[in-house]
Amino acid sequence: MKNTIIISSLVLLLVSCTSDDVNMDPHATYNTIPETLITYAEKELSDYMTTPNVNENNFRLTMQYWQETTYVNESNYNFTARNVSNNVWGDNYVNVLNNLNKAKELIEQYQPVPSELNTWPAKKRNQLAIIDMLSVYTFQTLADTFGDIPYSQALNNNQYPLPVYDNDTEIYESLINRLKVDINNLEEGQGTFGQGDILYGGDIGKWKRFGNSLLLKLGISISDVNPSLAQSTINKAISGGVMISESQSCIFRYLAESPNFSPIFENVLNNNRDDFFGGKPFVDFLNATSDARVSKYFQDVDGIYIGQVIGLPGEFSSFSAPGIFAYKQETPGNLLTYTEVSFYLAEAAARFGIGGNPEVLYKNAVQASFLEWGFTTQDALDYLTDNPYNAANWKKSIGEQAWVAMYNHPVVSWNFYRRLDYPALQAPPTAINNAGGKVPVRLQYPGLEATTNGTNYSKAAAAIGGDKLTTKVFWDRN
Questions:
Q1: Residue 116 CB burial class (10 angstroms; 0-12, 13-18, ≥19)
Q2: pLDDT digits over 203-213, tens only?
Q3: DSSP character string of 94-162
Q4: Residues 6+ apart with CB under 8 A from 177
Q5: CB-based contact 439:427 (threshold 8 Å)
Q6: pTM to 2 decimals?
Q7: What is residue 3's DSSP assignment?
């Protein structure tokens, strides 16, 4: 496959599943190759993590990076009017996980020709490991978003048309175990998906770095609720080899042509509407800390950067629009970056004394963010002089700086915020009553789940403490 994004009519058929379950459409016909399915699943995963579309991913608004100009429902946490949870559910279960699962089935059913008999077993292991790592990433994202979710019975419509919801604690333990096996099964020089793999082009060395970095992320996530498993997982990840440079970041490279350009560009410029500008809490923080990154994150208004009060509309020309990166077709989508991993390493050192000096690792993480956005090492050092690491309140230091660094990775930023309780965001007074005066810490289950899988939905809602925006997922305990 050429190194382009190819979405055939056969692949598009995969997203024609009805939205009332998390399984495969029994009427869909699959007649394609695994490489095409992998390309499509990777793009759909990146699209979800990247898009600012208010129908799908509102975490730029939740994390108060951006504010809506006119229609401010989502800035006030009204996610039901647009059925946001239904779309998040479908994006991840149908567009990503079901396509990965079908690719897995095709690989397992494949009968190698005589010339492939010696090489196929290792190539098969590599392909299945990559598929499973992407599945682990996606299931973690869903569990972090909703709490208990369909897991053990998901993706099997024939046997489980109405899947049960698994305990999110147990899901995490399973994901950690799966990922360890996947990493161990990877073998360099034995083939993968080649250029059908847009993320790494079949580079097994980079996939190993990705796998260990994802393992680190899983370990960090459970630090407050299971420190023993967290530390063993973190140690395993670091010893296995996590990302050590920006060149190893897992990013999706979009193209200049429609429909394969960046979903940020699609929603900020291509729709010919001015829907977003900077949120006041974030822009004010950048200004107060004299952060040079503000010039890349936003556009100035007569030489200054201005954000709007959260929850209120405003005139587009009066506030700072998103930076030029948002107006470029080829701005890549972030899945797991070196900057993100660097902050996990700083947190591991601060929490558990694992991996090195937390202050040094904190500085390295901030520097990684500056370099990611095209600044110099000296720019980062100048900033760190005025914004040093505070060992007495490391959660504040790491939490606030991760907030700044994850500006273009808002789903992940939300995780840092919930785990570290920094930055100290406040819900707007105009927020809907269901938010309880707080910034949401989870999404509510899709409305369609309550109507089509009602028994299992009700059990899950009761198990997590209520299907509310204020119900914390299992690892968010402080």
A1: middle
A2: 999 999 999 99
A3: IIIIIHHHHHHHHHHH----GGGTTTHHHHHHHHHHHHHHHHHHHHHHHHHHHSSEE-TTTT-TTT-SS
A4: none
A5: yes
A6: 0.94
A7: S
